[in-house]
Design a protein that fits this description.
The protein is mainly α and 146 residues long. Helix 2 packs antiparallel against helix 3 and helix 6 runs antiparallel to helix 7.
Amino acid sequence: METLAKRLDLPGALSVTAGFRSSSSLDQRRERRVALVPDPRAPRRLRRRPGRLLVIEHMSKAPLMPLGFLRRGAVFSANALAILTISAVSSMIFLLTIYLQTIQGYSALSAGLAFLPTALIFLSVGGYLSARLVTRFGAKPVLLVA
């Protein structure tokens, strides 16, 4: 039991859990409101959470996310590129969903189903074929073609 206590970063785990819980509760409160009145405190609270987690992880003896790995240029670049890509794709899906519903007249279900073929292609290529292609041809040629 003592080895688990040494490896578990309890403050970091609680910080992440509290952050996710409070951001989801903010979303739920926002959905319940009749008028869309923005909460002026929400952006400040959301900005503080990552900072708290970084401080907790930096001071921990056994962090959930060792920050030293970000010092490597390739790892930092890959993570930054992944964040930008996920942000762009998420924004695109959000805007296309609004476009399909408001301009094209799709129902919410139809708009969601319109993305199903794309999601299945990404799932099959990203989850199954990419590993086989990288094993066969190497990472560089696969990334150049993708």
